[in-house]
Please model this.
Amino acid sequence: MGQQILFFEKSKCDYANEAASVTASQGNTYVYRVRDRRNDSGWRTTGSVDADNTYIEADLADVYNVNNIILINNNFKSYIIQYRNPINGLWTDFSPAINETNNTKTTIRHEFTGVTPRIFRITIYGTMTPNDDKQLTQLIITDKIGKLTAWPVIKSPKHDNIHALNIMSSGKYYVQKNVTSFMCELESKSWLESNDIAIIEKLFNSIEGFLVWLCGGDETQFSNLIQGYRLQDLYLMNTKKEYQPVFFKGIYNTGIKTSLPLVEVTF
Model:
């Protein structure tokens, strides 16, 4: 059995949070890239070995409630993640503690009891291949909105990177491409569960974007690893039209019929 679709608030260290910052004990010049939502660039050290105990620190510049940390495209085998206790200044474990000693997942999610610190630290003690340079494309520090109970149809998924399409005098086309944006629509015959309806209403009422994880953390449920359904594919999205909840067949106790049209957004 696979995992249903998950939703999270926008990462608290996202580049849109201009006051936030990330630093690293090695490769500091490039560590800012873990905030940019992109998987075609990222942080990578040069000449690092396991004994260096390399670390990344994220300063959110304010306190937020968070209960999830997601590491996308990492090669960390052994590491811990802690937060700085605002009262005594000590590095403190989450509950449960994040202390990996034999990680094999290049994208991994850690969920814990919600906390409201400002500063986080990842200390890397070893890589999947010993003494490799450390790498990470995205660091997501967030609060979970929820997981759907239903299994909606993912309709009209579209990766759009066409900026302009022009025909030349030769009769051939010139295609100008831009950064790819993603969109899709989630549709269920009837949304019955109160949990799902609460999530849908929160998404429709959201002013800023939210993260959508179509695979729900399990890409093995798909026959092929298609872009959009991989572990590394978390999109900052928002709804693109108004909320129109209609009782299914007009019967008040049969759930609501509405679609959830999602488009990738900047903020």
Observations:
- The helical segments are 194-205.
- The chain has two domains: 12-144, 153-264.
- The chain has a mean pLDDT of 94.
- The CA atoms of residues 43 and 241 lie 36 Å apart.
